[in-house]
């Protein structure tokens, strides 16, 4: 994934390459990404299809929110298992 991302930047947005950096780390290894990403630096944390693969969801969320600035945005797109039927809020309104 990191190789593909690097290739995409090089091909699709070469002007952005000098300011884009990819780092490899685990969200749930207990480090909270310390030593990899400073805290309170991110305006946006965005994840697609990663959190469902973590073994420690609480640690993964702590990692994300440690690096997020106060008032920053957290966008999460993922799979989840629901314990009860999901209410269709739009239909119920
Ligand atoms: C289904 S891919 C999604 C990748 C990308 N977000 C996308 O939409 O194409 C899941 C990614 O999560 C990464 N991943 C799995 N467990 C992880 C963990 N504990 N911490 C960080 N990344 C993890 C995998 O290495 C893989 O790159």
From TrEMBL:
InterPro entries: Methyltranfer_dom, SAM-dependent_MTases_sf. Residues 32-80 form the Methyltransferase domain. The keyword Methyltransferase applies. Keywords: Methyltransferase, Transferase, Ubiquinone. The keyword Methyltransferase applies. It comes from Chrysochromulina tobinii. One of its GO terms (biological process) is methylation. This is Methylase involved in ubiquinone menaquinone biosynthesis. GO terms for molecular function: methyltransferase activity. It comes from the Eukaryota.
């Amino acid at each position: 994934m990191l190789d593909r991302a690097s290739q995409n930047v090089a091909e699709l947005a070469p002007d952005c390459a000098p300011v884009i950096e990819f780092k490899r780390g685990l969200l749930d290894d207990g480090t909270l990404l310390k030593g990899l990403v400073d805290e309170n630096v991110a305006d946006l944390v965005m994840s697609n299809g990663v959190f469902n693969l973590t073994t420690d969801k609480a640690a993964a969320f702590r990692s994300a929110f440690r690096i997020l600035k106060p008032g920053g945005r957290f966008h999460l797109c993922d799979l989840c298992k629901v314990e009860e039927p999901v209410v269709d809020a739009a239909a119920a309104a």
